[in-house]
Amino acid sequence: MTGTFPNMMDFSGFNAPSRVECDIFDLMVVEGRIPADFHGRWYRMTPDPQYPPMLGEDTYLSGDGMISMFAFVDGRVDFRSRYVMTERLKNERKARRSLYGLYRNPYTDNAKVQGAPGRSAANTTPVFHAGRLLATKEDGRPMEIDPHTLETLGEYDFGGALRSATMTAHPRIDPETGEMFLYGAQAGGLATRDMAFAVIGRDGKLVSEQWFEGPYAGMVHDFVVTKDHIVFPFFPVIVDHARLKAGGPHWRWEAGRGTHIGIIPRGGSAKDMRWFSGPDWSFFHFMNAYSDGSQVHVDFTIADEVPFPFIREASGLQGPPNMEHAGLVRWTFDLSRNSNDGWVERRLGPPGDFPTIARANHMKDYAAGYYQIYDPAVGPPNVAGPVGVGFNTVVRVDVRTGELRPYAPGPSCTVQEHVHVPSTAAGHEGYLLFVVDYHETMSNEVHIVEAEHPERGPVARIAMPLRLRNQIHGNWVPEAELPAPAGVSRVQAAG
Ligand code: V55
Ligand code: FE
Question: How many angstroms is it from 124 CA to the middle of ligand 1?
Fold first, then answer.
């Protein structure tokens, strides 16, 4: 007996749970052609709750992790979706109902699973590194997934080497050295200020792990790395252990606690951390960052206040979030100056989220970025995803000139997060690949646009025979980087 999901924006309309595990061979291309150099996998993840919330209400962000894969080869594409088989999901399926209470509050769980390991829903980002596919969520260790079958292989802790209890859903990979940089917030346990920071070598082995204390136990959802520096952002969405014990919400916006940016030299130690502090800001995701001598340029999307409705409610914030100063910005930190001097801000574009760039440009000076925005001139707002109103436009931004090249599929459409797919053709900027939500028909298509010219419209449209809940994050993995399927050598696999 699954009951029904509550009538909340988190579970209604396009946010209605899907819960479909399936295989679809050869999706239908309904317009144009899939570029011939698409040879790889697009992995994407969404929370997709197996059961209605135990306590009547819950956030989108608590849903059980669902991973899906679009496998592209020779102008064709196959689809597969599977649940991430966490301890959480196994326990729920055994009981045939939800056993877990509030978002990241184990004190509210059913007695059957109180204090049991494996509470994380592993529902945020499919991370691929050193031949391994990991289903991540920032409240726990990742789950390793077979990149071909999408079968869950078990919790992954870098061969027992990782000490942190958590790993971010936003590690950063240096495209040249192949190193992966990651951190864990609340690394030493629930509601601690402990931050772990680890470097994983190109071969997948943990090279180093250091710990430091954050200014408060905040939500550190993303971070960013340059060729010379590592940047840790803190903004005032804060957890409190006493509140959790009392059965309260995990996060609260605590106005006045300020924004704190910690910067260390790459290869340096946590002791070298320089802190820059300023007024309260809410961050989304980082587009890129690069160092130029003592200057560190950090490009990301900011807003005046936290946007997640469940956090706003827990914080007593009324109505829609204040977006007065929201936008894509560049903050420049000068390490040769006094930290109290703060940073210099330059506006790069309108408010939005899900910024990406070509993988080859990560950590270096660059020209083009891509992200999603909501443009009211395109059409009225539609609910899609965890924040509420979904984006309706994918835009290329020239971060040097501010020029914008938008693509909006239609007035009643929302666009999910895109991935950037590199082209094998010299000088070609690649493609953007994303799911489009058609709210009039409650159906989806996948669209592919030229990264350099989204405004020219799709080069291919692929029909989806099932509704796809909005992804949190996805990644593109070129076929050549995948391990051979079990029992098949690379030579056989290529033949
Ligand atoms: C985010 C997503 C999460 C989460 C915390 O998109 C932050 C941000 C899907 O889960 O737990
Ligand atoms: Fe994220």
Answer: 6
Model confidence pLDDT, tens digit, residues 398-447 = 999 999 999 999 999 999 999 999 999 999 999 999 999 999 999 999 99
What is the whole-number distance in angstroms between the Cα of residue 140 and the centre of ligand 2?
15
pLDDT at residue 490, as a whole number: 55
| For residue 341, pLDDT beyond 80 | no
**Token duo for residue 363:** 């950590």
Q: Is 52 in the pocket of ligand 1 (CB under 6 A)?
A: no
397 lines ligand 1 (CB under 6 A): no
- The response to whether residue 221 sits with its C-beta less than 6 Å from ligand 1 reads yes
Are 328 and 371 in contact by the 8 Å Cβ rule? The answer is: yes
Q: Could you give the CA distance from residue 302 to residue 343 in angstroms, rounded to a whole number? A: 14
Question: Taking residues 313-319, what's their average pLDDT?
Answer: 94
Ligand 1 in reach of 61 Cβ (< 6 A): yes
Q: State the pTM of this model.
A: 0.97
317 vs 300: CA distance, rounded Å: 24
CA of 303 to the centre of ligand 2 (A): 15
| pLDDT tens for each residue of 343-381 | 999 999 999 999 999 999 999 999 999 999 999 999 999
Q: Is the pLDDT of residue 127 over 50?
A: yes
pLDDT at 339 over 90: no
Mean pLDDT, range 67-74, rounded to an integer? 98
Tokens describing residue 263? 């910067």
d(CA 129, CA 174): 11
**CA 474–ligand 1 middle distance (angstroms):** 13
Q: Tell me the backbone φ, ψ of residue 314, rounded to 5 degrees.
A: -65, -20
Ligand 1 atom closest to residue 123's alpha carbon, by position in its atom list: 9
Query: What is residue 184's three-state secondary structure?
Result: strand
Residue 104 CA: nearest ligand 1 atom is 11
Ligand 1: which residue has its CA nearest to atom 8? 221
237 to each of 31, 221, 354, 363, 385, how far by Cα in Å? 44, 10, 20, 27, 20
SS (HEC) of 426-450: CCCCCEEEEEEEECCCCEEEEEEEE
| Distance of CA 222 from the midpoint of ligand 2 (Å) | 6
Alpha helices in 252-340 (DSSP H): 309-314
